[in-house]
Design brief:
Layout lengths: L34 H16 L58 H13 L113 H13 L9 E2 L2 E2 H30 L2 H9 L16 H26 L6 E3 L7 E2 H27 L2 H4 L6 H13 L14 H25 L8 H6 L2 H28 L2 H10 L7 H19 L2 H9 L3 E3 L2
Antiparallel strand pairs: 1-2, 3-4, 3-5
């Protein structure tokens, strides 16, 4: 007696409908040939549609199970075929309402292997069938129409051809007496250098699926699609890209900065600052000229003309050693200022210097700065000694209190652009005398004292001396003193060139009161030597010199 099969109900066919198939579908509507054969036929049809790239697929007809001779129903009810979506838009559901045939389309070998695996994983649908000794041949119905799918090539006819006839396959009917199912063996793709895999025996089912050898799969890249590109971005996409580019501007690169400003900002600072200083200077000149035109200021300037007479016995003119001392002083001061600024801005020195046998190291730039300081101090001591030995100190040391009112008159004349009478060969004006005295006897000793306090010469363990003279005070004074020297050099050179350049340069470098070009060319040569020293003040040149007095290392 045939056991009625339980039909699995799935999702509804229409939104809000009942699960499909309907509940009135009974066992007589199920496939009695076994789930394996039915699944194999369905999968074979799907594989036939999904593999349009194969040229000559092998036909694999699946044979339905032959009912046992002892079965009372040798002619089961006709199979009800599930109808799905139409094949063409607006057509009827597929397949048609005509009675379905048991013909099974041919499938490739890979699909047959998958069918065998699926069939083995499902329990048999006829557990009550007893083994039979008869092994009748199963014949695929030739009268039924073969399902034709999509064409193999673009524009071709549906596949398989209309004259395709399935082959006859003899398969023994295998009955299953127990629900135990053996594990199937999966056959892979054939190797390029070997033949196709042998047929894999399927699990015991109602019918045996014969696996047909498949031709070797061609090795290499697939052919391109047989149709050209038909979709391109239109005008709307171009407008959208343009709007997006305008809405998301590309950030500009960060400009190169020199200190706190860029080059353009520095140019603006120089232009605006220069114009502002020029305007302020013009206003100062006009104000001072109005001020000195007053009656009481005319009387004041007549009483204190800007200079006073030197004591009797004061020397006249400049000896040669004054010119040489002046050159050495300028040369050393320029390099000291350069190395001092480098020490303040240097973050990671490239070279270090240390005394032989000492572990304490200082940067090569600091060693150069301190070495220049020692030479400058030696030159200054020699200069001061010669000043007092030769009597030249009377020219730069004030000897009367009249120096201060005369310095006021000289300053007013400079600001109003009415230059005071210049006779530096005999006597400086009061403002020059005060400036030279402050530079030689005040600024220079202050720079030396603060520099020694910050150097390694200062004793580190002298607690009382360190409390009396903290290093913070030295740092707070040393840098402003350097700024004073820079300002003094700029103003001094400007006044020398503005109040008679040839005569003043002859006083400093030529040692005469004549007006010629000798002093000028000596001054130009001294500038060339100073520029060469500025360019040579780098580790490549300084390291060999520093090795003569200690050890130079990279770290």
């Amino acid at each position: 007696m045939t056991t009625p099969a339980r039909i699995r109900r799935g999702l509804p066919r229409v939104p809000g409908g009942e699960p499909w198939p309907p509940a009135d579908v009974g066992a007589q509507d199920a496939v009695l040939v076994g789930s394996a054969a039915g699944d194999a036929a369905s999968v074979g049809s799907a594989a036939q549609d999904a593999a349009p790239g194969s040229d000559s697929p092998a036909a694999v007809p699946a044979a339905p199970a032959t009912p046992d001779a002892s079965s009372p129903d040798r002619h089961p009810a006709p199979l009800r075929v599930r109808r799905g979506l139409p094949r063409v838009p607006g057509g009827e559901p597929w397949p048609s309402a005509a009675p379905a045939s048991a013909t099974v389309a041919s499938v490739p070998a890979s699909a047959s292997v998958d069918v065998a695996r699926d069939a083995a994983s499902e329990p048999p649908t006829r557990p009550d069938v007893t083994p039979s000794t008869a092994e009748p041949a199963v014949e695929v119905a030739a009268a039924g129409a073969v399902r034709r799918g999509l064409p193999r090539v673009a524009g071709g006819e549906p596949w398989p051809p209309a004259d395709f006839v399935p082959a006859r396959v003899a398969a023994p009917a295998v009955a299953v007496s127990e629900p135990e199912v053996s594990k199937p063996v999966r056959a892979g793709l054939p190797r390029p250098d070997t033949s196709a895999p042998a047929s894999v025996p399927a699990a015991p089912t109602a019918a045996t699926v014969v696996v047909v050898e498949e031709p070797a799969v061609p090795v290499g890249p697939r052919a391109p699609l047989p149709f050209p590109r038909t979709v391109f971005p239109g005008a709307a996409a171009a407008r959208w890209n343009a709007d997006r580019a305008r809405a998301t501007p590309i950030p500009a690169a960060e400009p190169h900065r020199i200190g706190p400003f860029t080059r353009g900002q520095w140019a603006g600072v120089v232009i605006v600052g220069g114009l502002g200083m020029l305007f302020a200077a013009a206003m100062a000149v006009l104000a001072v000229r109005w001020f000195v035109s007053l009656e009481f200021m005319r009387d004041f300037m007549a009483t204190y003309p800007g200079e006073y007479h030197l004591p009797v016995g004061a020397p006249v003119g400049f000896p040669a050693w004054v010119g040489w001392q002046h050159f050495f002083n300028v040369f050393l001061m320029v390099l000291i200022i350069r190395s001092g600024l480098r020490v303040r801005s240097e973050k990671r020195p490239t070279a270090f210097w240390s005394r032989r046998g000492s572990k304490r190291k200082i940067s090569l730039t600091l060693w150069f700065h301190q070495s220049l300081d020692i030479l400058w101090l030696v030159n200054g001591v020699v200069f001061v000694v010669l000043l007092f030995v030769t009597g030249q100190w009377l020219r730069i040391v004030p000897t009367s209190w009249e120096v201060f009112p005369n310095a006021v008159t000289a300053a007013l004349k400079y600001v109003s652009l009415n230059w005071p009478t210049e006779d530096g060969w005999v006597n400086y004006n009061a403002l020059q005398q005060l400036a030279y005295f402050a530079t030689v006897f005040l600024a220079a000793p202050l720079a030396a004292i603060t520099g020694v306090r910050m150097s390694g010469v200062w004793p580190k363990n002298a607690k009382t001396l360190n409390r009396a003279y903290p290093v913070e005070w030295a740092r707070a004074v040393h840098f402003p003193v350097m700024l004073y020297f820079v300002l003094f050099i700029i103003v001094h050179v400007a006044l020398v060139l503005a109040t008679g350049a040839l005569r003043n340069l002859n006083h400093m470098y030529g040692g005469s009161d004549q007006v010629n070009w000798i002093g000028f060319w000596i001054f130009a040569a001294s500038l060339a030597v100073i520029a060469a020293g500025w360019a040579a003040a780098r580790p490549l040149v300084l390291a060999p010199i520093a090795r003569l007095f200690g050890t130079v290392s990279g770290r």
